[in-house]
Amino acid sequence: MKRDIEKILFSEEQLEARLNELGQQITKDYQGKELLVIGILKGSNIFTSDLVRKINLPLNMDFMVVSSYGNAASSSGVVRILKDLEQSAEGKHLLIVEDIVDSGLTLNYLKDVLQSRKPASVKICTLLDKPAGRKQSIQIDYCGFEVPDEFIVGYGIDYAEKYRNLPFVGVLKREVYSH
Ligand code: PRP
Ligand code: MN
Ligand code: MG
Hints:
The chain has four helices and nine strands. By secondary structure, it is of the alpha/beta class.
């Protein structure tokens, strides 16, 4: 596991500190609003779980399972919804929680799908933003950190379904994914 990591970008302590800040900001912004936090699985599993515990408001949680990468190292461009919301989005303030925005395809697709369900608002919170990967522009309302154009894993983010359980965010060694 760890021997496949080139370098650590954000340690457990750095992640925790930034999540505290994001949680405080979200707590301020959603005072008195009916908030539905939507975790996009599988990648945002860990980030969503940690983030909601930093939000000091009554809220609902729901999850969608979508996949665009499969086991490939780059996006297929086709977003598949494998599991949809279990509750209605109508009239609610939706906060989509993602682990990373790369090409922007996943979130553009999801935002359109959710917008069509007549919510009160739709905002995006991502732990990581990789601007160099962008193919479609997307407005990010809350962002943890920007990352360089490298293969990122850990804290929920996988390569071929591995490395999600690393407690930090790191860069995968090139030799692991290029052959
Ligand atoms: C990854 C990541 C984001 C998306 C970002 O998910 O978790 O959801 O890709 O890439 P994009 O901006 O280029 O669309 P993936 O499809 O690998 O599924 P996973 O969350 O189950 O790993
Ligand atoms: Mn994902
Ligand atoms: Mg993935």
